[in-house]
Design a protein that fits this description.
about 230 residues, alpha/beta, Rossmann fold, six-stranded mixed sheet, two-stranded antiparallel ribbon, branched-chain amino acid transmembrane transporter activity, ATP hydrolysis activity, ABC_transporter-like_ATP-bd, ABC transporter ATP-binding protein, ATP binding
């Protein structure tokens, strides 16, 4: 797949696949095209060449709001909660595309699954720490019942203890049979948790393999892990 902005091509011949219940990580330097790739998958950008499929059906050119309805969720960089609403109300926003009658049951189950949110369910989301807001965003995704979750720098700016908690939630998402595609600057953490990983440099995939293998890859160690 190729993609970019106007005549400027940023993604050049990237080929990826995601399986249900799998975490795939993408690492690479700033400006490599990682966020552009996520934006293309979610429909903010249209591929200039190549194909994009979900369950065998082409989704190239599908708009973002339609991507959500087709089962793709996108957790962007930064914090995307509504600070003036309660934690519970923020969670309920994750179910806005659903028309079934199981939302309340799923919400209660979700709060039981994440005690940190249960304890603050009536509080405004604006009082949460950065890590707690990220957990809220990820938990909210589960109410969408997605097939694919795209994560852009989910641990950016978080304290080490919160990074572990965030990845606990990522594994909960994966455990629900969801394919997770995560872009990370926290390379060691990403590779440690990923089933598969790839390195994007200048818009192309330079290395790819199992997460554990990439941790031991000589070039990956030298450039991204400090030797």
């Amino acid at each position: 797949m190729h993609s970019g902005y106007g005549t400027r091509e940023v993604i050049r011949g990237v080929s990826l696949s995601l399986g249900a219940g799998e975490i795939v990580a993408m690492i690479g330097p700033n400006g490599a095209g990682k966020s552009t790739l996520l934006r293309t998958i979610f429909g903010f950008l249209r591929p200039t060449r190549g194909t994009l499929h979900l369950d065998g059906e082409s989704i190239a050119g599908v708009r973002p709001h339609q991507m959500v309805r087709r089962g793709i969720a996108y957790v962007m960089q930064g914090h995307n909660v509504l600070p003036g609403l309660s934690v519970e109300d923020n969670l309920q926003l994750g179910a806005y595309v659903r028309v079934d009658r199981q939302v309340r049951t799923d919400l209660d189950r979700l709060l039981e699954q994440f005690p940190i949110l249960q304890a603050r369910r009536r509080q405004k989301a604006g009082v949460l720490s950065g890590g707690e807001r990220r957990i809220l965003e990820l938990a909210r995704v589960l109410l969408q019942r997605p097939k694919v979750v795209l994560l852009d720098e989910p641990t950016l700016g978080l304290a080490p203890r919160m990074i572990d908690q965030v990845y606990d939630v990522v594994h909960s998402v994966k455990g629900a049979g969801v394919a997770v595609f995560v872009v990370e600057q926290n390379v060691r953490t990403a590779l440690r948790h990923a089933h598969r990983a790839c390195v994007l440099e200048q818009g192309t995939v330079r290395f790819e393999g199992r997460g554990e293998e990439m941790l031991q890859h000589p070039e990956v160690k030298r450039v991204y892990l400090g030797g």
